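In response to reviewer comment 3 from the previous cycle, which asked for concrete evidence that the modeling workflow produces usable outputs, we include below a single protein chain processed end to end. The sequence was submitted unchanged, and the resulting structure tokens are shown without manual editing.
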Amino acid sequence: MSAATDPSTPPGIDPAPVSHWLEANVVGAHGPFRFDLIAGGRSNLTYKVTGADRKVFVLRRPPLGHVLATAHDMGREHKIIAAVGHTEVPVAPALGYCAGLEVNGAPFYVMGYVDGLVLDSPEAGQRLTEAQRATASRSLIEVLAKLHAVDPAAIGLGDLGKREGYIERQLRRWSTQWANSKTRELASIDRCHELLEANRPEQIHTGIVHGDYRLGNCMVATSTCEIVAVLDWELCTLGDLLADVGYLLVYWNEVGSVPTNNDPSGVAGFPSRQQLLTHYTELTGRDLSGISYYEAFSCWRLACISEGVLARYKAGVMGDDSAFDLANSLIRTAGLADRALGLLEVL
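The workflow returned the following structure tokens.
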């Protein structure tokens, strides 16, 4: 059965015109194609595209339905991975970008498929040995240090965003996101915003900020457990590099703590939070004594993002939302805001 008539084609893909575009614009793409929505994405939709010769590609497009005007810019994301692909930071190769709406109703881009493991759950971490967990963690910090050493202008990303005032801009952006997408009132969100504004640190280290850097957004090689691709660049911009470090702490669990459902850390082999920070400082020389502010900021920002996801779920524009847990999503947003507030109140 061809992709054009396959009833299993997931929402967000118009198979006939997309197939024609792939064959015309992506080297080595030969149809008919099978399109499979890759589970786990709650923002941009990601599809595994398998050709007639079993060659595999990855296609990314915006979520279905209404989104913020400044979000989900496929051309921008494609530009980033194409540029970063010329550095020591591992990314999937950028293969093509479709800017027009006539092919699939929204812009999309195509990248190469990277084989490996995504450590996005406690179960994924349990499948590794202790030595492999240590290797993946070390590689995670080393790749982040490499990204933070890149000169944006040298790879054509000097115009990716304003360099200064990152936290100020982010506070403005995500408070607007909260106002536009909130499904209920949360006093902790507003109080966090006040404290984040009042305690904004001076921006010292400026460069490329990934914006969503964690093990769950990296691919590790099955053989070595070294990171072979950093994924999900949609929040990437220029700004304060310490924001990435603070964000990483949001997801990192100490050994023996209650695990979170989207991170593997917290079992033997994964280093402590302090060991992560020490390794980053050893590689970069940066002072992380004020990192609690950035962790709090990241918790608050993630709470605002989570509320946006919840709003899209309630609007029915999430694509395949069968695995979405409404109750946990409500708890998660409030829990992140409370965690941020706890960090900020002791600054």
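Confidence is low (pLDDT under 50) at residues 1-5. We consider this sufficient to address the reviewer's concern, and the full set will be provided in the supplementary archive.
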